[in-house]
Amino acid sequence: MSPASRYTFLGPEGTFTEAALRTLPEAATRELTPMVSVPAALDAVRSGEAAAALVPIENSVEGGVTATLDELASGTPLMIYREVLLPIAFALLVRPGTTLESVKTVTGHPVAQPQVRRWMAARMPEALWESAASNADGARLVQEGRYDAAFAGEFAAATYGLQPLVTGIHDAENAATRFVLVGRPARPAAPTGGDKTSAVFWLREDHPGALLEVLQEFASRGVNMMRIESRPTGEGIGRYCFSVDCEGHVQDRRVGDVLMGLKRACQQVRFLGSYPRADEGRPAQRPGTTDAEFAEAADWLTRCLDGRG
Which of 19, 118, 208, 220 shows the smallest number of beta carbons within 10 Å? Predict the structure, then answer.
């Protein structure tokens, strides 16, 4: 297939990322290519070797996936077009014949560890954890005999010739991971009424209330911020950029106004896209924040300037 028909994802085969990607209808007609890391998956999109990449961005237990946040904030700009929410429960995968009592070493992705820590402490407190590049890569390492067991999706067992010794493992009920489908920048899809907008911004200068001033750009327009995370810029201690998600679409007057406010107030702003919310939630708009009310206010100002106010 051509690069236009190729989607990359955080591999190898058998990751939760692959499972999330296969929930998208278009995945059935694409060549799905596993990559060794989030940067590798996104670089394939930047270079034109793939049309899009699905990567994890946020976990309900561990928080933001820093590799994805940092990649989206740096390098050639990319844009988010879709998001997927996948419920997460782990299986303890082992080679045939392994018992729980014989498991002395266990592996999995670093994000998986906080989601199974209490289970491990209760069921196998002496087991030594070592991180792997992904949960599926941990399964591969168990297959090769490097570790006794791996925390991964139950669906990965067949791929690596392993058996699920225990299934349905999680410390937190309703744990989920959010994934985003990322491509090269283009015009966002039309608003659906249940959308999310993502961006990264850098403060112009560090002074008391600097972040509050930026947050007021959202509050004064009635735009609900769904997530905000700081990430170091690499320019020194105390130098951060901020990754945000908010309700609404860039074509909504209130959201577009927020982005223009950020552009005026910040050193740099990177628009990461407007796309449908996976939970299909719709924001409750406060009085004075609808597109019609923004248009009415603009019309009123025009009349004032014309002496008709």
Answer: 208
